[in-house]
């Protein structure tokens, strides 16, 4: 098998009619071919048009998986996957500090459907078994949690899921397939917000489920009913964006390391959270499990909330906006954006202070980003 960088370019490229680049198939419906099953009828919502088939092959190859399905957003992938494996009365083990939208979906939507959950510390395997119930069906974690970039004991987690017959689900958005490939570690279902690094250009929302063919098929059938399909134009952009994932992420990572080190030695900075720093609580585990540490970091200033706001307002290059993984650096306070749906108590329990600043490293020159942070920190 070729290397990931090569598969990003050549997997899922059917070269239809000799076209080197995958064209957009802007058609909602296709001539009936006598398909026997509803799910095989070629129709855009049924996720089986040429745009989808090519994209699915590329997505599956990124994580050496049997299959993949693209979705209208990361939350469409996450919600559809959870709804596929959890029924009323079932119980879910959910990592502490997951993405705000996922947390809100589990606490507000799944609870309403009679699915209960307990939070787990993904770094503390001894604490998991006491939380099991007779109807525990799945365990859900993130490779790198946002915005503190904690890395759980993912090897023990897979073993625990197997032992207790749970579906193991992992959101690999922040790590990307470049730095972690869940299938190689035995996870059942991998989820992505392709809005972030996979598309990489801050111009679409999209998601993906990657995994064993039997799991992806179950989830696709749910998706066909729920309707969260990816539009062909967005599918085209994601397909195109994926080709440069390798060079983008490696470059963003190089800059993120340089920025983290520069911030760590800055007198105005109290604490830097980046898994590539020796000071990060999960640095050793991140080194063992991940091929790289990614392009995201966060930090606390000695001046607290007021200093954080002043810094964000004074940055000239980094844009004050949520989301991450695009070509332009973004800076935000998670308490007001990605994690605003959580109550202040829940945020505090998870170590997300109101003054925490998150930085998504873009593709600008690292020196310019360091200078920009430096001038903003001087204010
Ligand atoms: C952004 C994000 C999501 C949600 O993705 P959308 O494309 O915005 O629906 C889910 N998980 C993680 C880790 C994210 O960063």
What is the CATH class of the largest domain?
A: Alpha Beta
Give the strand tally: 12
Bound molecules: pyridoxal-5'-phosphate
Could you give me the name of the CATH homologous superfamily of the largest domain? Answer: Type I PLP-dependent aspartate aminotransferase-like (Major domain)
Structural class: alpha/beta
Shape, principal axes of CA atoms = globular
Characterize the structure shown.
By secondary structure, the chain is of the alpha/beta class. It has two domains: 4-242, Aspartate Aminotransferase, domain 2 (3-Layer(aba) Sandwich); 246-378, Aspartate Aminotransferase, domain 1 (Alpha-Beta Complex). The protein has 13 helices and twelve strands. The chain has helices at residues 4-10, 50-62, 74-85, 100-110, 154-163, 176-179, 213-226, 232-242, 245-264, 283-289, 304-314, 344-349, 366-378, and strands at residues 67-71, 91-95, 116-120, 136-142, 167-171, 189-193, 207-211, 269-273, 296-301, 319-320, 330-332, 357-360. The strands form two sheets. It has a seven-stranded mixed beta sheet with strand order 1-7-6-5-4-2-3, with helices on both faces. Helix 3 packs across helix 4 (100-110) and helix 11 packs across helix 13. It is globular, with a radius of gyration of 21 Å. Residues 73-75, 78, 99, 101-102, 142, 146, 171, 173-174, 193, 195-196, 205, 207 line the site of pyridoxal-5'-phosphate (PLP).
Briefly summarize what is shown.
The protein has helices at 4-10, 50-62, 74-85, 100-110, 154-163, 176-179, 213-226, 232-242, 245-264, 283-289, 304-314, 344-349, 366-378; strands at residues 67-71, 91-95, 116-120, 136-142, 167-171, 189-193, 207-211, 269-273, 296-301, 319-320, 330-332, 357-360. The protein is an alpha/beta fold and 379 residues long.
């Amino acid at each position: 098998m070729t290397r990931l960088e090569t598969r990003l370019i050549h997997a899922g490229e059917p070269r239809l009619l000799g076209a080197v680049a995958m064209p957009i198939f802007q058609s909602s419906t296709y001539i009936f071919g006598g398909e026997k099953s509803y799910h095989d009828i070629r129709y855009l919502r049924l996720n089986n048009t040429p745009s989808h088939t090519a994209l699915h092959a590329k997505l599956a190859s990124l994580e050496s998986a049997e299959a993949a399905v693209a979705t209208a957003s990361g939350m469409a992938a996450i919600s559809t996957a959870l709804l596929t494996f959890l029924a009323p009365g079932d119980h879910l083990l959910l990592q502490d500090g997951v993405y705000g939208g996922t947390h809100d979906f589990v606490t507000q939507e799944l609870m309403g459907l009679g699915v209960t959950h307990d939070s787990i510390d993904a770094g503390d395997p001894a604490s998991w078994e006491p939380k099991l119930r007779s109807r525990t069906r799945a365990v859900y974690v993130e490779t790198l949690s946002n915005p503190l970039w904690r890395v759980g004991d993912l090897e023990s987690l897979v073993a625990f899921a197997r032992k207790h017959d749970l579906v193991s689900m992992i959101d690999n958005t922040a790590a990307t397939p470049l730095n972690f490939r869940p299938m190689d570690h035995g996870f059942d279902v991998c989820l992505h917000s392709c809005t972030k690094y996979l598309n990489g250009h801050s111009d679409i929302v999209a998601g993906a489920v990657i995994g064993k063919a039997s799991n992806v098929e179950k989830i696709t059938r749910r998706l066909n009913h729920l309707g969260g399909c990816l539009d062909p134009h967005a599918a085209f952009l994601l397909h195109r964006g994926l080709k440069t994932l390798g060079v983008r992420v490696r470059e963003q990572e190089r800059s993120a390391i340089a920025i983290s080190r520069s911030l760590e030695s800055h007198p105005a900075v109290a604490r830097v959270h980046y898994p590539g720093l020796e000071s990060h609580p999960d640095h050793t585990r991140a080194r063992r499990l991940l091929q790289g540490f990614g392009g995201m970091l966060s930090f606390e200033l000695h001046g607290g909330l007021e200093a954080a706001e002043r810094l964000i307002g004074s940055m000239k290059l980094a844009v004050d906006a949520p989301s991450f993984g695009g070509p332009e650096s973004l800076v935000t306070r998670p308490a007001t954006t990605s994690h605003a749906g959580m109550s202040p108590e829940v945020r505090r329990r998870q170590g997300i202070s109101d003054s925490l600043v998150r930085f998504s490293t873009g593709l600008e020159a690292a020196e310019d980003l360091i200078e920009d942070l430096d001038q903003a920190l001087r204010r």
